[in-house]
Design goal:
The protein is mainly alpha-helical. It contains 15 helices and 5 strands. The N and C termini lie far apart (about 70 Å). Bound molecules: zinc ion (ZN).
């Protein structure tokens, strides 16, 4: 049975350094207190058992839900941190409102990863339980042991490399919902630019862009291909890029562009692949 008190979980975050250091922290905290006051935070089993927490405004019963099975499955000493981490993630969603963009998810993950780092590092002082009640666990400094929360640790490594977006687009439901040609163009220069995208992400971008058969998007396909350095990366990228024929048809829209034609020709020679059926303007 889940016994973590939401007040304690929110307070733990409220008094963390993560809140003090970021701009969004106080907004998230205020939103969480608001939701708790309105009785919109609660334990409830999700339809899909892998869901740990969720937020959806104005739904029947709790808007912010925590999966009790997930919390109960954790060692006693990790439950408070787990609920608090979920408060942060879902609290970001709640404070952003519904923008229906991958950027929401990125913000929610980023904020909870920063908080995870504090919990896994110096820890956070538990104001709620001060002075500590002997009968209760979690008094003093709340810390999570090394090796716990492996999913957050992995995401933390992606964040360090500015590749959290690659982590997210490795998840099919996010790709289906958010990966759109215009979004790709608008965000191509972020997070270290195209050179810092993983080959899988490059391939997934190409797949979406090629399906438009539009010269505007086809130019970006060439830029993405030009960013590849090794044969292994090229092969990985192309394994995610969809049908070669679709790519060829999309790149055909560039045949009137001399500079692009030359780049495509060089790519073909470098990687030994036919990107256009008739090579233009050699
Ligand atoms: Zn989320």
């Amino acid at each position: 049975m889940s016994t973590v008190d939401f007040t304690e979980a929110i307070m733990l975050y409220q008094y963390s350094n993560t809140v003090k250091m970021g701009r969004s922290g106080p907004t998230i905290v205020a939103r969480l207190w608001d939701l708790l006051k309105q009785n919109e935070i609660g334990y409830r089993k999700p339809k899909r058992s892998t869901v740990r927490g969720s937020f959806l405004a104005n739904r029947a019963s709790f808007d912010l839900r925590v999966n009790p099975t997930y919390i109960d499955g954790l060692p006693d000493g990790q439950r408070l941190a787990a609920v608090s981490l979920l408060m942060v993630h879902e609290g970001v969603h709640a404070s952003l409102g519904i923008q229906d963009d991958i950027m929401d998810e990125l913000q929610a993950r980023k904020q909870s990863i920063l908080y995870y780092k504090e919990l896994a590092g110096p820890g956070v002082f538990n104001e709620f339980n001060d002075p500590p009640t002997p009968a209760r666990r979690g008094g003093g400094i709340v810390k999570i042991p090394p090796g716990s929360f492996p999913v957050l640790r992995e995401q933390s490594e992606y964040l360090n490399r500015e590749q959290l977006i690659d982590y997210l687009f490795d998840i099919k439901s996010y790709r289906n919902k958010f990966l759109k040609p215009k979004w790709i163009i608008d965000h191509l220069s972020l997070w270290g630019g195209i050179n810092n995208r993983q080959p899988e992400t490059k391939g997934r971008y190409i797949k979406r862009l090629a399906a438009t058969y539009d010269a505007y998007y086809a130019g970006a396909i060439v830029d993405i291909m030009l960013s590849v350095r090794t044969r292994a990366d090229w092969d990985t990228m192309m394994s995610k890029a969809g049908s070669l024929n679709t790519i060829q048809l999309a790149l055909e829209s560039l045949t009137g562009n001399r500079a692009r034609g030359q780049q495509i020709y060089e790519l073909e020679r470098k990687w030994g692949v036919a990107l256009i059926e008739q090579i233009p303007m050699r």
